[in-house]
Amino acid sequence: MLKTLNYNNQNSLKTLKLFLDKRKSIQKNQTSVVNKIIKNVKKKGDIAVLNYEKKFSKIRKKAQKIYFSN
Description:
Helix content: 55-70%
């Protein structure tokens, strides 16, 4: 969603700073979550990928390995 700010107000710079700080905080949190996932996949390999696949796509499969088709 696009947010518009009116720069004719006295508090416009303060409003912009609050908006950007909030966005920075959200992105920092998301980055730390992604870094944890990447570290887990590097450490545990296919098992971690399968666990995340089950978690995020709700797949109910008991495979222990990942196979790629040509």
